[in-house]
Every structure is written in C-alpha cells, then in structure tokens.
Amino acid sequence: MIIALSGGIGGAKLALGLSRVLPPEELLIIANTGDDFEHFGLTICPDTDTLLYTLAGLDNPQLGWGRADESWAFMETLAALGGADWFRLGDRDLALHVLRSHRLRAGDSLSAITDDLRQRFGIGPRILPMSDDPVRTQIGTDQGWLDFQDWFVRLRAEPLARAVKFAGVEQVRPQPVLLEALRAKPRGIVICPSNPFISIEPILAVPGLRDAIAASGAPVVAVSPIIAGQAVKGPTARMFEALGVTPSAAAVAARYGDLLDGYVMEHGDDGAGITPRVFHAATLMRDLADKTALARQVLASIEALR
Ligand code: FO1
After folding, report:
1. Which string of DSSP letters, residue by residue, matches the chain?
2. Is the beta carbon of 35 within 6 A of some atom in ligand 1?
3. Ligand 1, from 99, 153, 164: best to mutate by most atoms within 8 Å of Cβ?
4. Domains delineated in the chain
5. How far is the CA of 84 from the centre of ligand 1 (A)?
6. pTM higher than 0.90, yes or no?
7. What is the pLDDT of residue 222?
8. Among 191, 226, 293, 305, whose Cα sits 20 to 30 Å from the Cα of 109?
9. Residues 77-100 pLDDT 10s
C-alpha cells in the first residue's frame, strides 16, 4: 500500500499520477481538512473536493478548484439577492456541498460521505479525510487571526501570514483506516507537492500520526512544491518569506525535519544541506504524462529506500 498525503491543486496532480500507475487497492489518498469551512450553512471541503474532481477527471484546470462544465446561476442569483459572493460555488459543485452537509447533519461521518462520493465518481483508490473530527486552519496576520478561506479567498492572501494554527487539531482522532494502513507495513508514504504550512502540516499535526508514520517502517518521500525558489502555485513562496525563511526546495525539506527518508526535487535545484536522500526529477506537472512520470519516479525512490 502506498499512502499519499495531499492538499489541493499540486498534491492532487501527483495523486492522479499515482492512481494511473498503481492498482486501486494499493493506493490510499489522505486529504487535508484544515481548509474546510462552513459557508451559508454548507460544509465545504476544498482539498477533498479537488482530489475527488481531479481523480474523476472532472476538475477545472483553469481555476484549479471546483469542477469543469460548470454553470453559475446560483452565484448570479445569490449576488442579485445581496448574498456574499466572494466564495464562488458553481451549480454542479453546489449539489455536492448540499448533499454532504445534509448527510453530516444526519450524523454520517465525513469519511463515509467522502467514500460514497469517491465510488459515485468511479474513482478506484480510496480518498479519505485525515480525520472525521473538524480541524480549522487559521492564519495569524496584522489583522489578527483569520479563518483560512477568509484570508486565502476573500482577502486574496494579501495580509502577510505571520503564523498558522490548526484550531481543534489537538482534540481530533486520526482517520481509523489510515492508522490501520500505517500499522499494516505500507510500502511507502508520499508527501505530495502541496503547501507544507497549510496543506501538509495540518495532516501531520493530527495526534498520533507522526508517530504512526515513524512506526510504520515505511520510507517517507516528499516531493518539493517549490521549483527554483518559486512555488508552482498558491502562496507557498510568500508564506516562507513572511515566516522569515527563504523559499527553496531545501527549506521545505527542512520544514519536514527528520520525518523524511527521501526528497524529490527539480533537476538543477540545490540539494545542499538536505538530510534525506535527494532524488532529482521533472516536478512541474503540466499534463497527464508529466504526472504519471513523476509518480513513477516517486515510486522508484521509495524502492531505492526500502
Ligand atoms: N478559491 C478561490 O480563490 N476563489 C473561489 O471562489 C473558490 C471557490 C471554491 C469553491 C469550492 C472549492 O472546493 C474550492 C474553492 N476555492 C476557491 C479554492 C479553495 O479556496 C482552495 O483550493 C483551497 O482551500 C486551498 O488549497
């Protein structure tokens, strides 16, 4: 079993690549839920939904979130009625949020709902939240603590992110299937190229998870989300600067500390000072061939570390 830890866009691309090169029962994808939030009474799970849509081939490559073949009648009407329209919900995407929110209120677990959606979308590998209990990432700025989506979307990540916290994470339990997979001697653990601060560290902060990863005996390989000092997408590079760290592939490796056995980074990026074993690869994923090629490289690095 390969266990992949993923946030949104970048992570989902590698998860798609892995799903193309592994038998479905050999891949377990764990989604960050720190970005989740309540909006108009709906529980929105952006990283989970990016993974579902990406693996279902329904993603919207222009936006990097939501789904393709979308219409916006709901948003147009909402705005006309004076509703807040800073967080855009497409009509098809909205159906998923309404159904999930209804089932959560009926007492279904986030895992059960996510797994039903995964099967409904015809996706082979399992996609599960890091926990069924709520974690809410908050960003510390000069304007005080902001909920993640408020900061990232409504304020367009403009206020400098000086600190990040994962509200509630101390009380949550790891997803049980994940713990079971970690105990069953998995082949390897992949940290996908998502933002370390807001997409991967919330997962690693779930109590017991870092220990379970270490105890699994499986090689842990991360893929750098930064190429030549620039984040491929999203606010990663700026967050490093705001936290006083020069953005680089090496800085990301250092963030993960002694968790890593291997680190996959772009050809030509400087591996000096990186303690895990470095593997160079083409880490910019523009098309499906890039994603599957990188997935193969990651699996090869895991085999080299076993
Ligand atoms: N990101 C935006 O920048 N603007 C949006 O209006 C927006 C809507 C949206 C709706 C559903 C969804 O699942 C994601 C959405 N996102 C939007 C992206 C989301 O804020 C980010 O993808 C993650 O939270 C960061 O990885």
Report:
1. -EEEEE-SHHHHHHHHHHHHHS-GGGEEEEE--TT-EEETTEEE-HHHHHHHHHHTT-B-TTTSSSBSS---HHHHHHHHTT---SS---HHHHHHHHHHHHHHHTT--HHHHHHHHHHHTT--SEEEES-SS--EEEEEETTEEEEHHIIIIITTT-S---EEEEETGGGPPPPHHHHHHHHT--SEEEE-SS-IIIIIHHHHTSTTHHHHHHHT---EEEE-SEETTEESSTTHHHHHHHTT---SHHHHHHHHGGG-SEEEEETTS--TT--SEEEEE-----SHHHHHHHHHHHHHHHHHH-
2. yes
3. 153
4. 2-136+166-305 (3.40.50.10680)
5. 15
6. yes
7. 98
8. 191
9. 999 999 999 999 999 999 999 999
